[in-house]
Amino acid sequence: MDPTAKDEMQPSLPPGSSCPGPEWPEQERAEQLARGAALKWASGIFYRPEQLARLGQYRSREVQRTRSLEARIKSVVQSYLEGVKTGVWQLAQALEAVQGAREALGQARGLLRGMAKAVQTLEPLREQAVQHKQLQALSQLLPRLRAVPAAVVHAQTLIDAHRLLEAYVSLRELEQLQEETWASLGGLELPVFEGLGPLAEALGQAVEATVGAAGQLAREDPALLVAAVRVAEVEAGRTTSLEQAPRDWRQRCLRALEEGLERVHFGTPLLPGPGALAGWLEALRVALPAELATAEALIAPCCPPHYKVVRLWAHTLHGGLRRCLQQFLEGPELGASDAFTLLHWALHVYLGSVPLGQWEVGGSEAGGSE
């Protein structure tokens, strides 16, 4: 290639200008690589002399490419500068908004402090308003509250007269009035209702005593037995807004049925003395089936099905008999006649399973029959 052509391809600098040295070694190396690549490209293009005629075209094309790159760079830089300008403007607006919000929060804080002072000032007025509301409710309930002591006495009279359903209705009316008063007065308890607790306990004891005499009442006054059971069942489904312990009258009735039955047949005064065991067992042989028949025919219809009266009767009679026989075996040594009677009765008369384990009578053992 002609050296003059190579000189023409070298970029010329304006007169009086000097190319500043690179600021970093990497920049100098990059420029050297770029110049080497350009010279290599130019040497390949203009290697033959006939291609020198096209030098002007190449120069014009490179100038256009350079201008295009400069325009694109300028556009990118301009866009970037506009974005920076927009971001700075938005930051300024956000700063103004933050300052405005800060001032508004300061004003709100001042207003809240003023409102707190106002609330403290109005607190006595609020208490007076609550008291006025309570007095208004109390004035409306006052005629009914005046009648509470007389109603308590009347309910107690009904309990003494064994009019249990009417007594329970009266008790519930008084308790509903107590709940209404408690809600109207904001949980304030009035001394006028202090008699309701003893009244409810008296009614519960009356219900329990009535159910405990179920065997007798089923024959003489079944309506009273039914009334007692109904009171217990209605009470079992009752809910109250007051913080009161539930009155579990249903369980008390079931316990009363068991205790009353055991008291009739296995009470301490009924236990036989020495030599009288045969007569006592014979009486039980007749009485226990009759008691079960009475429970099925008379007592069960007076009670809800879930009481399972016949099963309860059989279980209670069996348990009472077991305890009595156990007392005999653990007590003083039985005579020969009583021991023989007891063994004969257990093996041949009472054929059910008596869970006494091994019976020790006079040094001999006999197993309970199955």
Automatic annotation (TrEMBL):
GO terms of biological process kind: exocyst localization; exocytosis
GO molecular function per UniProt: SNARE binding
Superkingdom, natural source: Eukaryota
Any one GO CC term of the record: exocyst
Region (Disordered): 1-31
Pfam families (alphabetical): Sec6 (PF06046)
PANTHER family: EXOCYST COMPLEX COMPONENT 3-LIKE PROTEIN, EXOCYST COMPLEX COMPONENT SEC6-RELATED
Name the record gives this protein: Exocyst complex component 3-like protein
Lineage of producing organism: Eukaryota, Metazoa, Chordata, Craniata, Vertebrata
